């Protein structure tokens, strides 16, 4: 199902990656992205405490539950992300906008490791975006993320680190596969390109 | 797709829960990433699993503690997850317990249903060239264990004062680690968890030039992008790369086309060579030289200090195709000397065979099929040892990163789970209880997790006194004393 989509857009992706993803800006120091630019997309009606909680949540990456029982909660937009585990089972979860995929996985007991706790020092939160249209909607990886992806197990052309992918409205309905050692990822014709 | 996998998933869940009432006794030998990821996955997959992790050191975490460089603290964050596993109610850690000395593999197999060997690679590849035993030549592993406070290497006392030059053979990430530690301003190292004896030695070091020597070219260099970017960005560190070394052959182009990481490394090195501008003659400046297409032929002995290394004799190489895109270095018969007072061999680790265990000396691994240890191979059919498994470097060879063990453990645990379903583990075993009796009988001073917590607390407390995350205890006596303190 996904295979032919990949091959159609495959060369376009490679060209795009070659153009943008591989440019070296060595000396750049920002290891972590600032998520300040996601805050304005939230409804402005929020209590101060829920704003604080939200701010802290996105700057520490490992926090308490997504549903803080405060006034702003009903207005926090959520999207649906569907994790696909190693047995092919689809697990849809509701993720508040601004939360990282890694955090979302942990909050829903999805088995996605985050060894370095979002410090861009490992590749254990590697996820495969199963639809290239969704992959293209993401901002391209930074050099630092690409460096870690270089080493990721089962790397594909639509691979990303879960700690760097942030839930936004355009990602509603995205399927993210978790790589597995015990299953070759030839799901519905989806064949990862060798690296 | 989903239906078939879903059915299998439900069946395997049913089986594992139906045997969960009977405990599955597991012993994991080695408490590095391979050991801990194996424990983590076993605990999640089997409610009946009771796991003991043993390690010959009093401290857990393997190379995360003793291998990761002091200036890479983010890489050590993985310890948090491992600590949670060690504190799981169905898991226990016992340090200062050595397989082969304190107990035998056969005794472990009698006590436990499942034994997983995950003790990695504690030795080194040899070059096998003349002069290799001269003093001043160390394996990178020894040097790394020295600056990371491993209790077996605290008294290494490498000579850092006899010249301004060190030669590192190899261009992988370990080579970069040791180069960085040799050249970084010690003011920066002073606030890391580097061992005190190493910091003192480095503060008095006269090493200012480090040569990273590789047999092949920049396209084949084994280092990875993050580490390369890091050295290229260190202030006041001058990188030297010969432009002529950067010319690529068609075979190189093919290698880069097939590997995104090779291409990115080559581009970074090219940029670095272009940017390496004027050579200022500041006597204190630090230089990192990338030397390509040179293989060591022999080590040179000093005339003034007998028995000590004074340089390396290098042979120029060219690359020849070895089939399937691989290129190998071949000597050209042209030689040159590189003078130095310190040589670090960063050419790869090697596992140490265990008595009674089959071992593939060529690959340096315990022969296995997806983690199940192979006892013998008759007519190309492998017969596996029931209840004996491997994970990590002992299984795959000394390659990969911490994360590689995540998938390695998944595979090994997958094999264990299959064997559980097949009913391989029917007999009852004593497990932990038996281990405790055995260790007590032999008067082994085991260090349990609370003992490690005492070591941890002491190191952190000593660290705060010096503005370091921790001040490591570096001798066996100090470690065992701290673990036993009240």
Write structural notes for this entry.
The complex is a heterodimer of chains A (195) and B (486). With 195 residues, chain A is of the alpha+beta class. Chain A contains 5 helices and 5 strands, in the order ααββαβααββ. The model of chain A is unreliable at 1-10, 13-72 and 185-195 (pLDDT under 50). Chain B has 486 residues and is of the alpha/beta class. Chain B is built from 17 helices and 19 strands. Chain B has helices spanning 2-18, 33-45, 62-66, 78-86, 105-111, 140-147, 173-183, 186-189, 196-203, 225-232, 250-258, 260-275, 393-396, 404-421, 432-441, 449-464, 476-484, and strands spanning 24-29, 49-54, 91-95, 114-117, 123-124, 137-139, 165-169, 209-213, 237-241, 286-291, 294-301, 309-321, 327-339, 342-345, 349-350, 368-369, 372-378, 381-390, 447-448. In chain B, the strands form 4 sheets. Chain B has an 8-stranded mixed beta sheet, with helices on both faces. Chain B has a 6-stranded parallel beta sheet with strand order 6-14-7-8-10-9. Chain B is globular, with a radius of gyration of 24 Å. The chains are: A alpha+beta (195), B alpha/beta (486). Chain A binds chain B through residues 22, 24, 26-27, 29, 86-90, 111, 113, 115-117, 119-124, 143-144, 146-148, 150-155, 179-182, 187-188, 194-195, and chain B through 1-2, 4-6, 8-9, 44, 72, 74-75, 77-78, 80-81, 224-226, 229, 232-233, 258-261, 263-264, 267-268, 271-272, 401-404, 406-408, 410-411, 414.
Task: Give me some keywords for this one.
heterodimer; A: 195 residues; globular; disordered N terminus; B: 486 residues; alpha/beta; eight-stranded mixed β-sheet; 19 strands; 35% helix; FAD/NAD-bd_sf (chain B)
Largest interface, Cβ cutoff 8 Å: A-B, 40 and 41 residues
Give the CA-CA distance, first to last residue of chain A.
22 Å
Widest sheet, order of strands of chain B? 16-17-18-4-1-2-3-19
Radius of gyration of chain B: 24 Å
Major beta sheet of chain A, specifics?
5 strands, mixed
Fraction of helical residues of chain B: 25-40%
Structural class of chain A: alpha+beta
InterPro entries (chain A): 2Fe-2S_ferredoxin-like_sf, 2Fe-2S_ferredoxin-type, Adrenodoxin-like, Adrenodoxin_Fe-S_BS, Beta-grasp_dom_sf
Cofactor (chain A): [2Fe-2S] cluster
Organism (chain A): Camelina sativa (False flax)
Protein name (chain A): Adrenodoxin-like protein 1, mitochondrial
């Amino acid at each position: 199902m996904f295979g032919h989509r990949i091959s159609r857009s495959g060369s376009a992706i490679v060209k795009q990656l070659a153009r943008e993803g591989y440019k070296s800006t060595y000396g750049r120091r920002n290891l972590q992205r600032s998520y300040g630019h996601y805050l304005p997309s939230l409804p402005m009606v929020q209590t101060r405490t829920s704003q604080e909680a939200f701010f802290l949540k996105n700057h520490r990456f490992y926090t308490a539950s997504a549903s803080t029982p405060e006034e702003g909660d009903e207005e926090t937009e959520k999207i649906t992300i569907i994790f696909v585990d190693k047995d092919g089972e689809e697990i849809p979860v509701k993720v508040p906008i601004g939360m990282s995929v890694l955090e979302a996985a942990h909050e829903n007991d999805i088995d996605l490791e985050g060894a370095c706790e979002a410090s861009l020092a490992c590749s254990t939160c590697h996820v495969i975006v199963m639809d290239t249209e969704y992959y293209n909607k993401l901002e391209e990886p930074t050099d630092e993320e690409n460096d870690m992806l270089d080493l990721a197990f089962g790397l594909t052309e639509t691979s990303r680190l879960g700690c760097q992918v942030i839930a936004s409205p355009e990602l509603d309905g995205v399927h993210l596969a978790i790589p597995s050692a015990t299953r070759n990822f030839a799901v519905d014709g989806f064949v990862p390109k060798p690296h | 797709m989903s239906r078939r996998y879903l059915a299998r998933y439900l069946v395997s869940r049913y089986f594992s829960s139906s045997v969960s009432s009977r405990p599955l006794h597991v012993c994991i030998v080695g408490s590095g990433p391979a050991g801990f990821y194996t424990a983590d996955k076993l605990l999640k997959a089997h409610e009946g699993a009771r796991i003991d992790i043993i390690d010959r050191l009093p401290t857990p975490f393997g190379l995360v503690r003793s291998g990761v460089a002091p200036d890479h603290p983010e890489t050590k964050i993985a310890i948090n997850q491992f600590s949670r596993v060690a504190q799981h109610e169905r898991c226990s850690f016992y340090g200062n317990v050595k397989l082969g000395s304190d107990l035998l593999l056969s005794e472990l197999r009698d006590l436990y249903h499942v034994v997983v060997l995950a003790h990695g690679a504690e030795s080194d590849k040899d070059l096998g060239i003349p002069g290799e035993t001269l003093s001043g030549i160390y394996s990178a592993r020894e040097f790394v264990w020295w600056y990371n406070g491993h209790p077996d290497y605290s008294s290494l006392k490498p000579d850092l004062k006899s010249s301004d030059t060190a030669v590192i053979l190899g261009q992988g990430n370990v080579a970069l680690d040791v180069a960085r530690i040799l050249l970084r301003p010690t003011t920066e190292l002073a606030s890391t968890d580097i061992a005190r004896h190493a910091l003192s030695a480095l503060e008095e070091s006269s090493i200012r030039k480090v040569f990273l020597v590789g047999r092949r070219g920049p396209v084949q260099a084994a280092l990875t992008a993050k580490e390369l970017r890091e050295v290229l960005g260190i202030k006041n560190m001058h990188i030297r790369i010969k432009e002529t070394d950067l010319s690529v052959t068609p075979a190189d182009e093919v290698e880069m086309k097939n590997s995104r990481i090779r291409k990115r490394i080559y581009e970074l090195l090219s940029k670095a060579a272009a940017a390496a501008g004027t050579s200022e003659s500041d006597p204190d400046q630090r230089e990192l030289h990338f030397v390509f297409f040179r293989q060591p032929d022999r080590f040179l002995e000093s005339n003034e200090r007998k028995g000590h290394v004074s340089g390396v004799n290098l042979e120029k190489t060219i690359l020849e195709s070895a089939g399937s895109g691989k290129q190998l270095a071949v000597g050209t018969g042209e030689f040159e000397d590189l003078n130095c007072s310190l040589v670090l061999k960063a050419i790869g680790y090697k596992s140490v065979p265990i008595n009674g265990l089959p071992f593939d000396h060529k690959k340096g691994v315990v022969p296995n099929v997806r983690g199940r240890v192979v006892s013998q191979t008759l007519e190309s059919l492998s017969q596996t040892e029931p209840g004996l498994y491997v994970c990590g470097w002992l299984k795959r060879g000394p390659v990969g990163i911490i994360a590689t063990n995540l998938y390695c453990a998944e595979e090994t645990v997958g094999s264990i789970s299959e064997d559980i379903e097949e009913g391989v583990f029917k007999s009852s075993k004593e497990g932990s209880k038996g281990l405790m009796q055995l260790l007590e009988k032999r008067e082994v001073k085991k260090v349990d997790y609370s003992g490690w917590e005492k070591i941890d607390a002491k190191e952190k407390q000593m660290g705060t006194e010096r503005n370091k995350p921790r001040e490591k205890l570096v001798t066996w006596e100090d470690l065992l004393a701290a673990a036993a303190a009240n």
